[in-house]
Structures are given as structure tokens and as C-alpha cells.
């Protein structure tokens, strides 16, 4: 049954392509930028707009790096705290877990990333989580890198260089100004130029938070600002895969691609203010009021000068070039009351959202959403339970429903149990309801709400270094794009399952990690998942130079069985199902040398070492070859005090 409102989109306006029916000119997008400015100034957000303008300039990153790296000097402390926690600090920073995460950051839960051939480009993981991962299950951004009393300023700088294949710079910083004031900075810059014509991706990601809590914990406030920009050139894949698969081209740049001059950009600005104040207290119970405010700007921009490419089925508008823009702004106010003590926290809340949505040649509208909900947290030394429920009272998302619980328990025998449950019923995003561009157009005002039920259970036998997990998704009314990139909605229920078995073990100075993933899907057309995913990590570890240096030398093999992975349509930035090209059935081998020198980690890694040994059929996604063999250098430097 569809519980959506009678008119899903209030005051909806679909703009004509142009007065004479010809294509929209690039000048049309200028209205989008002026529209953004109008929203900001009319709503009293001039300061936020000024901050957004400044953040768009590259030189501000250098200034941020200087300020952050200087803070350990400007906010000094006695060395006694460092000496007191030195051994414990080093054991956490230099754990084997952190070693592996740094070396294999393209893996998630032992699964190698599937992308469009260059790191940071549009990607997905061929698992149940990769098909659908609710935003509320994603890891919180601002978490302490290490939580030890006495350690105040801590900075972690990461730099990875693979020549023109890939470059990464990351800076994470945390600072305690006394016991009540905390400061976090998270900066990341990624660039991956690729190897083929018009194949490049880059990310600029910056976030900062200032958090204060009074000595009596009666009042707490935090402010955060985030900026995210993703730019990628879109080549639409190879025109003739034979040249690549038979290694006929001396230079990859000579292999033809579908789009030689097109690009996509996504930009996000988010500002959040959260406050909590205790109203009264009785014994250990505290009655409190909380208010969270946030403002977000999102912009999608696509440019195409190859509108006659054969990857497009139709050409709706007679235009030589095409530029499409979608911008949406959201103001969210969430307020409520709650009761808390040292063990539990229970609260009820109401949420109001004001949204604006604007597409160059499509929908132009604004609408409100009102939610009511409840949240609960309980924790002691071994058990932690988090639960939240939210219901759409009115607006476009009326009758939307979200229920989720996260539970973790550590037994006395060091067995860690985790159970995550969620159920989400949600109205379709506006981009699926009404869309218009040079090659695609649809109006779907009768889409049913998508319903997704999920469960993720895991057990970790820490003593035996053994992990078991099961991840399931039950999908109803799933929205997808078929083989001709037509938007469709499934009218049946589908089930996805991912089961993981992983074991860490050692023999003398040799260390191993073996992980096997088995997957099932009720519909391999809609949800193409490989039946098996395997990973084997092997390395030899020893100490050198009077134990001043820890050395790790080893290799990693990742493998997937064959499956019809999703194809990708650049203009709408969406994956779609395909049955023409099977990918997988190919091992990726990496070899590495990893070293620890005091608080610095340095490594050399030969990624995809086996490229071209047997054949040239290694594809990241359909029609997009993965990166070949290349040498990578990386350093992670932890600065304390």
C-alpha cells in the first residue's frame, strides 16, 4: 500500500526547455548560482555564503594547515603527560589493525572497491551494504583518534604518492583545551588522473568541529562546518575493448573512449549547531532540552560536449553542448526534551525541514517536512544500546518511517557481539520523480515508497582473532535503471545476504589474514553480486636496528567470482543494470614493505603487481578497466604535543 500524500510535490513547477523548443544554453545555470545567493541572503545566512566563497579557494587550505600544525606549539603542555602515556599511546597508534587499514584503504570489510578505473570516481561495493547503506549507519566523522587523559594536541598527517596514478594528502587533528573544550579538524585532498583520455577524479574534503562541555556537564554546545567537492572527468568507458584486452595499444591514451570532453562535479556545504542544557535534576536524573540546527547546500553539475556519443540512446534537445545543474538546500531544526543519567539517555523530539530544489530544465519547487520521533541510549562497561525511531507527520515525506537499533556487547571472555537492525520506508528522491536533461526525461509521480529492512550481526572472538558476520537486506519497491537506462520500480520483494568468515593468525614471524565472503541474491539481474569474495594477506614481521624499526614485508590477494556488475551513465551519474559484460574472476595482487620508525609509518607498495601477467581483462566496472601496475609511496606521521 502506498501511503504517500495525494500531491507528492507542493507548488511544483516544470520549466520549459526554452521558448522556441531548442536546447538550454549554459547561461541558464547562472540562475542557479544567483538563486543560491538569494536563498542565503534572504534567510540571513550572508556569513555562511561568505564562508562558502572563501572555502572554494585553494589557498585557504594552506592557511588551515599552517594554523592546525602550529596549534601543538601554541597550546603547549608539560611533557609529563606524554611520558606517562607513551607506551600505551604507541601501542594503539602502531597496532597491526592500523597498519593494515593504512596500506589497504581501498578495502572495506575485506572487499576491494569497484570504481570507474580511478580512485575517488563514482564507486560501489558489490555487497549488500554496497547496494544500500542508510546514511544513519555510516560512521561518525568526528571521533577521537585516541582517548587518553593527558594527551592534548594530536595531529596525524598522511601522504601517499603514486606518481600520476594517485596522490593523497590527509590531515587529522584533535586538541583538548582543558577538560571541557575540544577541537577537531579533518582535511583530505585526493587526486587520481587515470590513464585514459578524459579520465580524472579529485576530491577536496574539509571538516572542523568545536565542542564545549561545562564542568558540571549541565550545558554542551558544538559547531561544525564541512566542505566537500568531488570533480571527475567522464569518458563513458572504452569504445573498443579489444585494443585493451589484447594489449594492442602502445599508449593507453590512443584507445578511444565514448566521451572525450565531459565532466561531473558535486559540491556540498554543511553547517551544524547543536546545544543541550539541563533544566532540572533530581538525584542522578537530569531533565534536559536540546536543539540542533543545520543548513546544507548541495549542487550537482554536468557538462558535455560529446552529445552525439553512441552511449546515449536518444537526443531530446537539438544542442551542440549540454550543461545541467541540480541544486538543493535544506534547513533542519530539531528540538526535544530528554531524561538522562550515567547509564541511559531517553528523549523525544520533533524535526522541521525546509527544502528547496532546482534543476536547470526540470523541477523548481520548495517544500516542508515535519517529523516526530524518539531516541534511546543505554551503556555500561560491557553493553551499549542505541535506538531511534522517526515518523513523517506531514509534508513531502509524510508517512516516511525509520526505526533503527545498534547493540554491542563485550563478554568477560573477550567475545564482542554486535547487532544492528533497521527498517526504513521512504518517499523517492525528487531526482527520481521528475528529471529533464539532454538525453533523459521522466515524470514519475506515482512511485511507491521504497521499503528496506536490514540486519547486520557479527561476533568477534578476540582471543582467537576470529570474525563471523551476516548482513541481510530485504528490498521492497526498489527503484533502479534498466539496461536502456530507463527508470523503473520493482513490484516484488528481494533479499540480499552477505556472510563473512575472517581469521587472523601467525606462525613464527609470519602473519596471516584470511577472509571468505559468500553471498546470495534473489534477483541477480537487479542485484548483481559475486557469489564469492576472497582475500589473503601474508606478511613477515621483524624488528631491526636494535628494535628501533618494525619491518613488515608481504603481499595481499583479492578475488571475486564472475558477475554482471553495474554499468554507469555519466550524464545522470547513476549505475544501471547490464547483461553484456561479466567482470571479476581475476586476482589482484599487491606487494608491500611497511616500516615503523618511532611514530612514523612509511611504506612502499606495488599495487596490482600482477597486471598483464596472464591477460588484460581486469575491469573495475563494465567497460571501465581498472588501474594497472604502479608503485606507491606513503608516510603517516603522528605528532603529539
Please render the helix and strand layout as text.
Elements: E1 13-14, H1 29-42, H2 46-55, H3 59-74, H4 80-84, H5 86-93, H6 96-103, E2 107-108, E3 111-112, E4 114-115, E5 123-124, H7 128-131, E6 154-161, E7 167-177, E8 181-192, E9 200-213, E10 219-233, H8 241-245, E11 262-282, E12 285-304, E13 322-340, E14 344-359, E15 363-379, E16 383-395, E17 401-410, E18 415-426, H9 430-433, E19 434-436, E20 441-443, E21 450-461, E22 466-476, E23 479-481, E24 487-489, E25 493-507, E26 510-521, E27 532-544, E28 549-560, E29 567-569, E30 574-576, E31 586-597, E32 600-607, E33 619-621, E34 624-625, E35 630-640
Antiparallel strand pairs: 1-15, 2-3, 4-5, 6-7, 6-35, 7-8, 8-9, 9-10, 10-11, 11-12, 12-13, 13-14, 14-15, 15-16, 16-17, 17-18, 18-21, 19-20, 21-22, 22-25, 23-24, 25-26, 26-27, 27-28, 28-31, 29-30, 31-32, 32-35, 33-34
Commentary on this structure:
- This protein has a 22-stranded antiparallel beta barrel, surrounded by four helices. A two-stranded antiparallel ribbon has the order 2-3.
- β2 (107-108) and β3 (111-112) form a beta hairpin.
- By secondary structure, the protein is mainly β.
- The termini are far apart.
- Mean pLDDT is 84; it is low at 1-6 and 18-84.
Q: Largest sheet at a glance?
A: 22 strands, antiparallel, barrel
- Rounded to the nearest angstrom, the distance between the terminal CA atoms is 59 Å
Segments where pLDDT lies below 50 for 5+ residues? 1-6, 18-84
In one word, what is the shape? Answer: globular
Rg value: 26 Å
**Estimated structural class:** mainly beta
Mean pLDDT: 84
Total number of helices: 9
How many runs of DSSP E, i.e. beta strands?
Answer: 35
What amount of the residues lies in strands? over 45%
Amino acid at each position: 500500500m502506498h501511503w504517500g500524500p495525494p500531491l507528492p510535490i507542493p507548488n511544483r513547477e516544470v520549466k520549459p526547455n526554452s521558448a522556441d523548443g531548442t536546447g538550454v544554453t549554459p547561461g541558464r545555470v547562472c540562475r542557479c548560482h544567483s538563486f543560491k545567493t538569494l536563498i542565503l541572503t534572504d534567510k540571513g545566512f550572508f556569513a555562511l555564503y561568505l564562508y562558502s566563497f572563501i572555502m572554494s579557494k585553494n589557498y585557504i587550505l594552506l592557511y588551515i594547515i599552517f594554523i592546525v600544525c602550529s596549534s601543538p606549539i601554541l597550546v603547549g603542555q608539560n611533557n609529563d603527560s606524554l611520558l606517562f602515556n607513551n607506551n600505551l599511546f604507541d601501542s594503539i597508534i602502531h597496532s597491526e589493525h592500523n597498519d593494515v587499514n593504512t596500506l589497504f584503504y581501498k578495502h572495506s570489510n575485506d572487499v576491494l572497491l569497484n570504481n570507474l578505473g580511478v580512485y575517488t570516481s563514482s564507486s560501489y561495493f558489490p555487497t549488500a551494504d554496497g547496494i544500500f547503506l542508510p546514511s544513519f549507519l555510516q560512521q561518525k566523522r568526528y571521533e577521537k583518534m585516541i582517548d587518553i587523559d593527558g594527551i592534548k594536541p594530536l595531529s596525524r598527517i598522511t601522504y601517499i604518492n603514486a606518481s600520476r596514478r594517485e596522490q593523497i594528502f590527509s590531515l587529522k587533528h584533535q586538541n583538548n583545551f582543558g577538560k571541557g573544550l575540544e577541537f577537531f579538524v579533518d582535511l583530505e585532498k585526493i587526486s587520481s588522473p587515470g590513464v585514459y583520455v578524459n579520465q580524472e577524479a579529485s576530491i577536496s574534503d574539509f571538516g572542523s568541529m568545536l565542542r564545549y562541555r561545562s564542568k558540571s556537564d549541565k550545558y554542551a554546545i558544538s559547531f561544525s562546518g564541512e566542505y566537500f567537492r568531488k570533480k571527475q572527468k567522464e569518458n563513458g568507458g572504452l569504445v573498443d575493448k579489444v585494443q585493451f584486452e589484447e594489449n594492442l595499444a602502445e599508449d593507453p591514451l590512443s584507445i578511444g573512449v565514448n566521451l572525450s570532453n565531459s565532466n561531473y562535479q558535486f559540491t556540498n556545504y554543511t553547517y551544524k549547531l547543536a546545544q543541550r542544557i539541563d533544566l532540572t535534576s533530581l538525584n542522578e536524573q537530569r531533565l534536559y532540552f536540546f536543539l540542533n540546527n543545520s543548513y546544507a547546500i548541495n549542487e550537482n553539475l554536468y557538462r558535455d560536449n560529446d552529445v552525439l556519443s553512441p552511449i546515449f540512446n536518444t537526443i531530446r534537445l537539438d544542442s551542440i553542448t549540454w550543461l545541467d545543474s541540480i541544486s538543493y538546500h535544506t534547513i533542519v531544526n530539531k528540538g526535544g526534551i530528554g531524561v538522562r543519567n550515567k547509564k541511559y539517555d531517553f528523549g523525544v523530539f520533533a524535526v522541521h525541514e525546509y527544502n528547496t530544489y532546482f534543476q536547470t530544465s526540470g523541477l523548481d519547487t520548495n517544500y516542508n517536512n515535519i517529523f516526530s520521533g524518539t531516541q534511546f541510549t543505554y551503556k555500561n562497561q560491557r553493553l551499549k544500546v542505541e535506538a531511534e525511531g522517526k515518523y513523517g507527520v506531514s509534508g513531502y515525506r509524510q508517512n516516511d518511517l525509520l526505526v533503527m537499533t545498534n547493540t554491542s556487547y563485550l563478554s568477560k571472555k573477550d567475545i564482542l557481539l554486535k547487532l544492528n537492525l533497521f527498517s526504513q520506508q521512504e518517499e523517492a528522491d525528487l531526482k527520481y520523480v521528475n528529471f529533464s536533461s539532454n538525453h533523459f526525461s521522466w515524470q514519475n509521480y506515482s512511485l511507491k515508497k521504497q521499503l528496506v529492512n536490514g540486519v547486520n550481526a557479527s561476533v568477534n572472538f578476540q582471543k582467537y582473532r576470529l570474525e563471523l558476520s551476516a548482513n541481510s537486506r530485504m528490498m521492497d519497491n526498489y527503484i533502479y535503471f534498466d539496461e536502456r537506462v530507463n527508470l523503473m520500480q520493482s513490484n516484488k520483494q528481494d533479499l540480499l545476504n552477505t556472510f563473512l568468515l575472517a581469521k587472523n593468525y601467525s606462525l613464527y614471524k609470519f602473519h596471516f589474514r584470511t577472509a571468505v565472503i559468500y553471498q546470495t541474491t534473489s534477483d541477480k539481474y537487479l542485484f548483481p553480486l559475486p557469489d564469492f569474495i576472497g582475500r589473503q594477506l601474508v606478511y613477515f614481521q621483524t624488528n631491526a636496528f636494535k628494535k628501533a624499526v618494525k619491518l613488515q614485508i608481504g603481499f595481499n590477494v583479492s578475488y571475486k567470482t564472475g558477475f554482471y556488475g553495474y554499468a554507469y551513465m555519466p550524464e545522470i551519474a547513476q549505475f544501471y543494470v547490464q547483461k553484456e559484460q561479466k567482470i571479476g574472476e581475476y586476482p589482484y595482487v599487491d606487494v608491500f614493505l611497511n616500516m615503523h620508525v618511532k611514530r612514523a609509518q612509511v611504506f612502499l607498495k606495488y599495487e596490482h603487481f600482477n597486471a598483464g601477467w596472464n591477460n588484460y581483462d581486469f575491469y573495475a566496472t563494465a567497460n571501465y578497466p581498472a588501474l594497472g601496475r604502479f608503485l606507491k609511496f606513503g608516510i603517516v606521521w603522528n605528532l603529539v604535543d
